[in-house]
Amino acid sequence: MTYDAAGGTVRESGDGREWRGWREATERALYGPEGFFLRPEGPAGHFRTSVHASPLFAAAVARLLVATAEELGTGEVDLVDVGAGRGELVAGVLAAVPAGLRVRAYAVERAARPAGLDPRVEWTGRLPEGVRGLLFANEWLDNVPVDVAEADGDGTVRYVEVRADGAERLGAPVGGADAAWLERWWPLAEPGARAEIGRPRDEAWAAAVGSLAAGRAVAVDYGHVRGARPPFGTLTGFRAGREVAPVPDGSGDLTSHVAMDACAAAAHARAPGVLTVQREELARLGVSGARPPLALASSDPAGYVRALAAAGEAAELTARGGLGDFLWLVHRVGGGAATAAG
Ligand SMILES: C[S@@+](CC[C@H](N)C(=O)[O-])C[C@H]1O[C@@H](n2cnc3c(N)ncnc32)[C@H](O)[C@@H]1O
């Protein structure tokens, strides 16, 4: 169903050349029949997240889980990985937690359970309720589909519509809750200025934080905050390791940076959120890119090589201009607001 740019009429042609808003087009392209994320190769076949970059990331999340369990005063804790991909993070965390801590692990994912996943992981399409522990969402919110808005030559803000081949046109004026969201979080003034309307991500994050009875909810993503929004938005595509034009035909990822301050506000009623950057959070969790002392090379050559490799991986996870700039949004439920580790 689409709105004609001129008259706002509804049209459905069914010939594969329909105009749709970006939210609906993305939903179909990523999660519809033969959708990009439901394909067998999974996200790791097309791009690299912190989870794939190094097992140090899962080890850091495991330390956060342990800290959360200690704060809750329990030896049995929940771990919920939202947007779990093929379960790489949840499996890595389970492998890294110390013996003695009992973990109920959930992977919340729209794709099917992958073969061979640790049988302790419960694979589910829905958030479990009443979670006591750590809910962690790495690069989930950027894949929650959103509409795109653009200010036309008169300054009227309109939905951007797209065809399956990526052609775009301007559609109906943005109104209602979407217009209110833009006004509060991402006002568009100049003709040609564009924004992704983050309302569905706010709602998704509020629901995720709301599923916690006690513990921490952490969203990690590339993002921006009011006052530093990109003037033309960030919608883009990824396919086979390369950034490509966003085309909603199911052949690649469609993603845009997350308005993390808006997500924080949406979940504030449950617990206040704190925004920091990955390089600081991982440093607090003991991930360091510092080179090992050279003396180790002669006393323990194999250990030196291992430490050097780990330092290289840590450097990638904490790099400026790369993964280290990712935003961490942390809500502590049943406790004060804080950084992830503190
Ligand atoms: C970019 S991948 C990230 C995978 C993994 N967390 C990582 O960091 O490697 C995003 C994942 O979120 C999943 N996803 C998107 N929306 C979801 C939803 N509403 N519920 C569960 N999973 C979702 C997608 O299917 C996809 O596997």
From TrEMBL:
Keyword Aminoacyl-tRNA synthetase: no
Keywords: Methyltransferase, Transferase
Identification of the protein by name: SAM-dependent methyltransferase, MidA family
TM annotation in the entry: none
Keyword Methyltransferase part of the UniProt annotation: yes
Stretches assigned to coiled coil: none
Gene Ontology molecular functions: protein-arginine omega-N symmetric methyltransferase activity
